[in-house]
Amino acid sequence: MIRLGPLRPHDRERVAEVLVSTAAFSSDEVDVALELFDAVHPQSNAAGDGDYELVGAFDASGHLMGYVCFGPTPATDGTYDLYWLAVDPASQGQGVGRTLLRHVESSLAKRRARLLVVETSSRVDYAATRTFYARSGYAEVARVPDFYAPADDRIILTARITTREGGVATQ
After folding, report:
1. Radius of gyration of the chain (CA)
2. Which residue from 55, 78, 86, 148 has the highest number of Cβ atoms inside 10 Å of its Cβ?
3. Of 157, 154, 158, 156, residue with least CA distance to 169
4. What is d(CA 132, CA 1) in angstroms, rounded to the nearest whole number?
5. Residue 10: which residues within 8 A CB-CB, separation 6 or more?
């Protein structure tokens, strides 16, 4: 059973564990993901950044199996970015990633969002990630050679959420 729900400040340590356990993210990337977490859940009494949303996938005992972070792309009409989607390796292959991704898409369709953009790496260790998105209906629309590092391209994938007329896109 997978239960989805918002992440809370006390989930920060577990989010860090999930990110590190995947072995896909560098320490700098983990730091960036946690900065986004902190933007949503500031330690002060100030209001969090409403532009980012964090959703966790929890098992029946409330253990965080994975999470997603997404938000609107500034200065666009109905475009959103998927910033992070990470699933603990112990929970991979159980539909956690797909459940999180479909939740984002469904949430965005209700908002009449048009497009969801995902960026990923061309490194060999990201092959499973690229396959996951391709099987989920995402198409590569751009590639920036040597973006992250020499021989590590930035791959931009997209999926249409709704049409310009506001109807739900079919994939």
Report:
1. 16
2. 86
3. 158
4. 21
5. none
Spell out the alpha helix ranges (H) of 45-95. none
Query: What is this structure's pTM?
Result: 0.90
Q: Of 33, 18, 11, which is closest to residue 92 (Cα–Cα)?
A: 18
Q: How far is CA 165 from CA 78, 113, 162, in A?
A: 12, 11, 8
- C-alpha pair distances (Å), 170 with each of 19, 105, 108, 137, 167: 31, 12, 14, 10, 9
Average pLDDT over residues 143-156: 97
pLDDT over threshold 60, residue 46: no
User: How far apart (Å, rounded) are the C-alpha atoms in residues 54 and 129?
Assistant: 20
